[in-house]
Write a structure and sequence with these properties.
Layout (H helix, E strand, L loop, with lengths): L2 H8 L6 H12 L7 H6 L3 H29 L6 H9 L1 H30 L9 H20 L2 H26 L18 H11 L16 H30 L12 H8 L2 H35 L17 H14 L4 H29 L13 H20 L3 H26 L20 H13 L15 H14 L1
Helix pairs in contact: 2-8, 2-10, 2-12, 4-10, 4-15, 5-6, 5-14, 6-12, 6-13, 6-14, 6-16, 7-12, 7-13, 8-10, 8-12, 9-14, 11-12, 12-13, 14-15, 14-16, 17-18
Length: 497
């Protein structure tokens, strides 16, 4: 981890508003690919459509608001790991990082699988393992290399991919208008409803709003950019789900059992013809590229942030000449390869369970920081008092518990093993640090400034760094600051505001 590499990384291009919207869009959605199963599991269109109207209000909006406040309060790589460490200490910060990283790698393993699921409708060869395994490896290696080349490239690529991926659904929706029969949107057969699959599908298609916070240190002016990007991404995600579903279910009288992963290609065929089917399949391929890139970026920069805080060996913070965390990217890619053999539904349920545990801890940290650190500099603040934000977090917390309760026995066992491994890893890493078996960063790196060189931002960055308590040095004992120095910093920040 040479110093020159780190310096190069800090002067690398930052992510701006529209690339960040695209990255969040791909962290969460990537388009309507994968929502088809919500129609089948919901026993018809009605529950699926209601889900994508109601769930964003009780889940997506609260998570986005919490993310906006905390990501701007701690504009550093590592995101939620920093928040949890500041609220509950380094042990729980590490557990959060472990759960969310493992969940993210499992999520990323879905996208090569989804990509091939769309292709196999036209190329049945990908139904067999002989063609499927080399294809999965080839996709993973190629996309990993693109991620290695730079986050700003990934961001601008995500913008182009988002436009290309959504265009065929706009065309399909326009073509469907003369054939729409609104009464078909009200169809539901409760005897066919699979509640576990339905809630897992809804949850998966509307989560991961917090993921972009793990690369907050790479964003231009995060205090202003993050809230705007999250608001734009919420609107984009919800409309990209509802409009194609309204078009497909309203224009065609199809059995709900036909709506499985990849089925939008067949819907395009029935509405527009072969050309639209192929266009949707190409868009699905491009969408999965964007989903993979955005997820891997979040996972890799999370490991980098944990390394900079001293939670992981310093090798995870080493950067390439392109400013990307090489070892962290390779580690995430390896996890994807090992998990790609699982089925779509298996991966979905495992990652949802781990993600739900992590989100419960994030909501708890959000409320605790409001109580424990009322003086924390919050460039964006949810306009509610402590009681109000507690009520804001209650509905999504209930949903998280529901998703966990609906999990299978296999999911409980696998997730329990992952959690136990995290509990064992933390003391093992502490022991390795104490014995000097591995090299760790012992000091918090300088906070990333969006307008480097200005005194105002340096003061704010210094305050961010000092109020972070345990998050500042993670595995090391928390540094205490003198009251007079702290009060001076608060006073100077208030003047700046």
């Amino acid at each position: 981890m040479p110093g020159d590499e780190i310096n190069t990384a800090r002067t690398s291009p930052k992510v701006t508003l529209f690339p960040l919207i695209a990255l969040i869009f791909y962290e969460v959605s990537g388009g309507p690919f994968g929502v088809e199963d919500s129609v089948r599991a919901g026993g018809g269109p009605l529950l699926s459509l209601l889900g994508f109207l109601i769930f964003p209000l009780i889940w997506s909006v609260p998570e986005a608001l919490v993310t906006a406040e905390l990501a701007t309060s701690f504009p550093e790589n590592g995101g939620y790991v920093v928040w949890i460490s500041s609220a509950f200490g380094p042990f729980w910060g590490f557990q959060e990082g472990w759960w969310k990283w493992f969940s993210g790698v499992m999520d990323n393993a879905l996208y090569p699988v989804l990509f091939l699921d769309y292709l196999k409708h036209s190329l049945p060869i990908f139904n067999g393992l002989v063609a499927r395994i080399p294809a999965l490896l080839g996709i993973t290696v190629s996309l990993t290399y693109l991620n290695y080349r730079g986050l700003h490239i990934v961001g601008f690529a995500a913008v182009s991919l988002a436009v290309f991926s959504l265009c065929p659904f706009i065309v399909m929706s326009i073509l469907s208008i003369p054939r729409l029969r609104p009464k078909q949107w009200l169809v539901v057969d409760f005897k066919k409803v699979e509640w576990r699959g339905y809630f897992n599908s809804m949850f998966w298609n509307l989560n991961y709003w917090d993921k972009a916070s793990t690369l907050a240190g790479e964003v231009t002016n995060p205090s202003k950019t993050f809230p705007k990007a999250l608001f734009g991404a919420v609107l984009l995600v919800v409309t990209s789900y509802l409009i194609p579903l309204l078009a497909g279910t309203g224009a065609l009288e199809l059995s709900s059992s036909k709506w499985t992963d990849g089925y939008f290609a067949e819907v395009g065929l029935l509405i527009g013809g072969v050309w639209l089917k192929w266009w949707i399949q190409a868009a699905a391929a491009m969408s999965n590229l964007g989903l993979f890139e955005a997820e891997m970026s979040g996972d890799a920069y999370q490991l980098l942030g944990m390394s900079e805080m001293g939670m992981l060996p310093s090798i995870f913070a080493s950067r390439s000449k392109y400013g990307t965390p090489t070892i962290s990217i390779l580690c995430s890619a390896t996890g994807v390869i090992f998990l790609s053999w699982m089925t779509f539904q298996e991966i979905l349920e495992f990652l949802n369970f781990l993600y739900a545990i992590g989100m419960l801890l994030e909501f708890a940290a959000f409320i605790r920081l409001r109580i424990k650190k009322p003086e924390l500099h919050r460039p964006y603040k949810v306009p509610l008092q402590t009681f109000g934000v507690t009520l804001l977090c209650l509905p999504p917390a209930i949903l998280l518990v529901l998703v966990m309760c609906l999990a299978s026995v296999q999911t409980f066992l696998v997730s329990g093993g992952v959690i136990l491994l995290g509990f064992l890893l933390y003391p093992a890493l502490v022991h390795a640090r104490d014995r000097k078996w591995t090299k760790y960063d012992t000091e918090q790196p300088a906070a990333t400034s969006t307008n480097e060189g200005t005194e105002d931002n340096l003061v704010v960055s210094e305050l961010h760094q000092e109020v972070a308590d345990e998050a500042s040095v993670s595995l090391l004992p928390p540094a205490k600051m003198e009251d007079e120095h702290y009060e001076l910093l608060v006073e100077r920040v208030q003047k700046l505001e």
